[in-house]
Amino acid sequence: MAQVSINDFQHYEIGEKDFHYLQQLVYREAGINLTDAKKCLVQTRIGKLMRRHQIDGYKSLFTLLDSDHSGKTLEMVLDAISTNHTFFFREDSHFTYLSQTIVPDLVRNHQKRNIRIWSAASSSGEEPYSIAITMMEALKTYPGVSFSLYASDISVTVLDKAKKGIYPLEEIQYMPDTLQKKYFQKGKDQFAHLVKIKNSVKELVTFARHNLLEPLQSQEDFDIVFCRNVMIYFDNPTKERIVALISSKMKKNAYFINGHSESLGAIKHPFKMVQPTIYINSNG
Ligand SMILES: C[S@@+](CC[C@H](N)C(=O)[O-])C[C@H]1O[C@@H](n2cnc3c(N)ncnc32)[C@H](O)[C@@H]1O
Predict the structure, then answer these.
(1) Nearest to 27 by CA among 84, 83, 81
(2) Does domain 6-81 have CATH number 3.30.1330.40?
């Protein structure tokens, strides 16, 4: 293994000008607002990326970004910057609300027979798979009703992980045993520390790369959108722009779900709040 010396770290120390360049690039391309407090984090993450790809400094990285018209270098930088923390049944009250309120409302009051759901910043798959499991359980009461689930993220790395659907066993340790047995396959021998989401769940989810700053192409409108724990990275003008784009892909009376530490309070939007973090689209 190559020796890393103290010089390697000095080498990647980020100056004001380089940080400013990255702040502007990441804001322009992904809407992510890297405040000055994130300088250290950016230095660590981009430093790691440059070391891995043997890029010898910020100047070389920026030259590469300019000349790489495939967009792969930009994708790599956005990947390194984005924070992908997530877990199964995160903010579990949303899943209770989904099965006990949203599904009955859409099926009984709006005669839905195929419920279209979008997990709009799905990270490594824990959120869409939690939605899929909740829907499979909830729809047992409604024979003849199905759902489709589209899951997107800007980061290709997390999408690859999501498509594989393999997680450390401890990620599901607090899930009821019945759900663990029904929806996950435990690894054996040297894989005993891993679990795999079963194909019966995996095949219900379509994963694709999508940048929320851009309009979503050729998708039928949705009945439910989960857009959780991503708005925190955006400033208000960006939030407003993203909510406008998302709402243009939602049916009338569709639900929009935000993370518990997020709020649409400071922006214009077409939704009616039904309870904190849960909204209904009144246009459409
Ligand atoms: C903290 S995770 C949230 C995952 C999940 N929604 C949850 O609540 O657990 C935020 C995700 O947003 C994604 N993200 C950040 N900016 C984005 C953008 N402009 N478009 C799409 N996804 C983005 C990141 O790649 C990351 O996977």
Answers:
(1) 81
(2) no
